[in-house]
Amino acid sequence: MDKVYLFPWEPIQAHAKSILLGGGSPEAEAELVSQRLVKANLTGHDSHGLIRLTQYMERVRDGSYNAGAQTTLLKDSGTMAVYSGNWGFGQPHATEAMRQAIGKAKEHMVSAVSVTNLGHIGRLADYACMAADEGMIGLVFTATGGMSFLVAPFGGAKRSMSTNPMAVAFPSDRAYPVVMDFATSNFAEGKFRVMRDANIQTPANVLINKQGEPSRDPNDLYDGGAILPLGGAQGYKGYMLNFMMEVLGGLLSGGGFMGWKENPPFNNCSLMVVLNVTAFRELPTFKAELEQLIAYLKDTPPLGEKKVLYPGEKEEMTEEKRRKEGFPLA
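and the corresponding structure tokens:
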């Protein structure tokens, strides 16, 4: 493995913002996108961090992304709505969709808002946590509009699905969110970029090459190989979750789904669902019982050098460390 260099996050974020401004983004958009990218690095999810900036700017140059595009409403039925990002950067439009979902859940106790026609939205946890910060449960289901062939369905030897992630966040009195965010494949695609750039092998049983043979070379993914679905020998579970994201994020939003047409544009179409806890329970009681659940699980005896963490705890520890020491860039 090559030597790892650590970089302070503040000047890196400022530099990323300046690149986005140079690409035509208005101030608020450049600030939000750069902040979200660096947040991904700080929490240890380098696959969704600054590694994406080159990809974003390529899409600005080829016209796939419209810097500064405005979010527009396509349909509204009270508790539910559909928005379009008009092919702009994904983060601002996904943020606006979640804001609308939160507002609807405050009024109606539950909401479901889809957003389509937008670029890569980054870490889904960012949006789920917006709801949790308002005392609600946030769920995010995301697809790619029928583009981004990366994952082999369970029992298949060829890639024909995307990584299709999901996220859920719960309100608590903790300083750091209780949140889970994961691809329905063994790894998100960006993890393979990170491994490739760091010149390291993948773990076993997560990747096959284009001949359908097991591989530990991350380059094989970019040579026609495929990521295996989440779950190892029981990968049918990850495949079914992937299928669910394809329907809820892509098909339901009208953003597209795998196999619907040839050469569709990348579209990080998503469904945001918000549940207002107060419709079910008193919020302080919910939070107290969530703490009781976390304490119970963390009291489990450790397995070797491992220990039980609550969802989001690993990110909390990583962010605290990286804010002080810096984070790696290939």
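(Above: one complete record from the training split.) The chain is about 35% helix and 15% strand.
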